[in-house]
Design brief:
Two copies of one chain form a homodimer. The first copy, chain A, has 488 residues and is of the alpha+beta class. In chain A, 34% of the residues lie in helices and 19% in strands. Chain A has a seven-stranded antiparallel β-sheet, sandwiched between helices. The C terminus of chain A is likely disordered. The interface between A and B is large, with 94 and 94 residues.
Chain lengths: 488, 488
């Protein structure tokens, strides 16, 4: 990076908020994906005007700018694959205005999801999307990625809560999108276009989020099945009844075995477990509990348990959340984020899981499937020996087949983790007839292509590129940085 | 219109579905706004491929295409101000697929809102947005305009229910936007950009809508106040409690007096009435009813009534819905759609209504205010002598002041009726810093500007242009067509 540009950045945010150190440019080259790429410079603004000045500078010099929140992205959103400036929002953590009577909160992008909810919960309100990474994920990152979590079946995703935002456009100009009103039909809904655009259309500097009352009471029904189809039937029958649970979680045998063996969890050995969370008024929960129990029994559950005891429910939820660490406990294998958050129409979950099992067998890898069955959003974890280039290649081949199945079932590449690098080729295939429109919009708003370049529709080549692991799997395209540089 | 183009259109959809008759081009020049402008040709396709062929033809010859649903738009969306082709979706009324277990329905754009809901309700589901024009409004029009209605406080607007769509882009190419899954983070959310774009970015040929279970039970609390501020306090306190009603409707004195005098409705003479609808489980309704009654009494209501009797509730709702016909019963005045659906932060409703009353006094016009207080969306009806050019000019001056107040309160020009013509200058003022981005996107997707041209950011001049009324109020810009042409 040209030292004169670093000087200019220092003049904008102060020297203490600019770094070109080996440590910082290395660390800020990672997110939670399988990828990494060194940044040229890391900058930490605190005010909107500083963000604007940084972007103007970058646009003048045609330098890539990659916005970064908590770094919890699983697809490579915050990895600066073209180098340039990593703009961290970690100093932009203010809650600007809490307006429960107007059903909104205004925040800076760097505030962490759980920190925001702690403040809102004092007023009996919250921001419903609940990503697994909520202790670290920032609201800005959640908006840029349209994050959600297990409660989308009842409460929707981040995109449903964005009322408005302030954005620094790729020219450095400020724009105020959306409103602070519940309703808005005043021109193009550009705020909803920015949601999920993964930092490629601008940098969000302020967000107005709709908030909701905290649901007071909860209960859980846990049903175990000796057959995936019976689990699927239960899920469909609950929804069609209709009962809309606040969450409906799913684990396949691989996941169930893993949590039982790693943590001695008291779950039935079975082909599938469905955990149904009900919330709302106590009387409504009691009625729905009975309905759901009967549906699961009628579908042929081998065991049905219910609880509204907070301690017991917490244990069950912890067991579900233990899937990921349990996987990582397998010897010589690591769980990697490949094809990790596809969404299918809810009733297609059994077809998807059966197909994934066949693909795993064919490629001699372990694919564990769990996820948010209530909204059709599955998580598959690929367990690989990350040092083995051949295992990666088998994994990559399996990913292609997984997405072919997902698309054939009417599903989509990413339900909540986004596209960035790891899913780019599959999104491009799925969205063949809309790529031209996406690219036209990107060019119209970012003519110099400085905003998180190289991602989404721009990613070329393999997904096993810029790997953070030592394995050298690439034959062409992006040269793997490997571990070599890591010890520079 | 060049006869060879009419011939080409006839070849695409059959001669029986193309019309250049005086009657048709005249009638299709109106919607429910104050505007009108003659179409050159009216065409009624039934299949997506036909829409695509029509748009390709139009793009080749640079002919404007204006998509038209039920013609219920209040801002001039479907008025072909540049002439050209009016493409009516009235033959595209199919329900393609009802999938309650997957929480979606796929429809053609021409299906009418209430017709769709009749089918869905047989399965205990529905599409929640409830525009007042639901008996006539089409789903395509609702999507293009981001329509909503009185239940947005709890159930959101159309934008929150669009999962995916098929669109004919301005080039005539087909694009499939969004998904059929509850969650979607697969690239730009272009479906959500099309929502509310008022036919300027493409023509919607199929829509996948998220659906919801029908709420089983309802109750109403009606509270009357001798002071607007007390009504406002009640609204804020209910939300902050928090109780989220399924609707919270508001009427000011002008509206209350009008329905009492026109229909002898049994409502208390008062400054403001707030009607709070509660839905959900019976036990929850009972609890919330008590809470809401107490909040209204504590705020100083002069009368509080509650009911869960369907007949009585229907009477109250009918009285609220009688506002519009009651207004029209006033001698020598007609209610016109000027500044008719602004949205403000919910707690700002009293400030807004007080200011509107002052503006009405200043300009010697009647402004009646009612609306969806629960979501901050107000309806003002301007009562004018439509034959009096001076009354129109006073009305227009008042509109400017109304929007100045709305914006100063943190509100927005349109909550649910859209911009099109009647609100274009005010939207442009409000969205000064995002117009460039809107225009860039429009140019990128519609380089020949054939899709509903002349609306939104493109509208130049006064709002009293292309008036459907006999008054000649324009001094420059668009010449009023007046009534002359109407009798050709």
């Amino acid at each position: 990076m040209d030292p004169s540009i670093v000087k200019e950045l220092e003049a904008i945010v102060g020297p203490e908020n600019v770094s070109t150190s080996v440590a910082d440019t290395y660390v800020f080259g990672f997110d939670s994906s399988i990828h990494r790429h060194k940044a040229d410079v890391v900058v930490m603004p605190v005010r909107t005007e500083e963000v604007s000045d940084i972007v103007k500078l970058a646009n003048r010099h045609r330098i890539p700018v990659v916005a970064r929140g908590g770094g919890t992205g699983l697809s490579g959103h915050a990895v600066p694959v073209k180098g340039g400036i990593v703009l961290s929002t970690r100093r932009m953590t203010k809650i600007i205005d809490v307006r429960v009577e107007d059903l909104y909160v205004r925040v800076q992008p760097g505030i962490i999801n759980d920190d925001l909810n702690k403040v809102l919960m004092k007023r009996n309100f919250y921001f419903p999307p609940t990503p697994g990474s909520g202790k670290v994920a920032t609201i800005g990152g959640m908006v840029a990625n349209n994050a959600s979590g297990m409660r989308a079946i009842k409460y929707g995703a981040t995109r449903d809560y964005v009322m408005g935002m302030e954005v620094v456009l790729p020219t450095g100009e400020l724009a105020h999108l959306g409103t602070r009103t519940i309703k808005n039909s005043s021109g193009y809904q550009l705020d909803r276009l920015i949601v999920g655009s993964e930092g490629t259309l601008g940098i969000i500097t302020e967000i107005t989020l709709r908030i909701m009352p905290v649901p007071g009471n909860k209960a859980l029904v846990l049903a175990a099945f000796d057959d995936l189809r019976k689990a699927g039937q239960t899920i469909s029958d609950v929804i069609a009844y209709p009962v809309i649970p606040s969450a409906m979680e799913f684990m396949d045998r691989t996941c169930i075995d893993a949590v039982i063996s790693a943590f001695n969890v008291n779950f039935p050995h079975s082909e599938a477990i469905v955990m149904i969370e009900l919330d709302g008024h106590l009387a409504e929960i009691a009625d729905n509990m009975e309905i759901v129990e009967k549906i699961a029994s009628d579908a042929g559950a081998i065991e049905v348990r219910s609880s509204d005891d907070p301690k017991e429910m917490a244990e069950w939820v912890a067991a579900r959340k233990a899937v990921l660490p349990a996987m990582s406990a397998m010897p010589n294998k690591a769980s990697v984020a490949l094809a990790d958050d596809m969404s299918v129409p809810i009733s297609k979950i059994p077809d998807a899981v059966v197909a994934f099992h066949e693909i795993a067998k064919k490629y001699d890898i372990i694919i564990a499937t769990y996820g948010h069955a209530g909204d059709g959003n599955l998580h598959t974890k690929f367990l690989l020996d990350v040092n083995d280039a051949k295992a990666w290649k088998r994994g990559e081949a399996a990913v292609g087949e997984v997405y072919a199945v997902v698309n054939s079932l009417g599903g989509t590449t990413s339900g909540e983790h986004g596209i960035a690098i790891t899913k780019a080729p599959y999104m491009r295939k799925e969205r063949k007839d809309t790529l031209a429109a996406m690219i036209a919009i990107k060019k119209a708003l970012d003519p110099n292509n400085i905003m998180n370049p190289g991602k989404l529709f721009e990613w070329e080549g393999l997904i096993l590129a810029d790997l953070r692991y030592p394995a050298e799997v690439e034959e062409d395209g992006h040269p793997a940085e490997g571990f070599g540089e890591g010890v520079e």
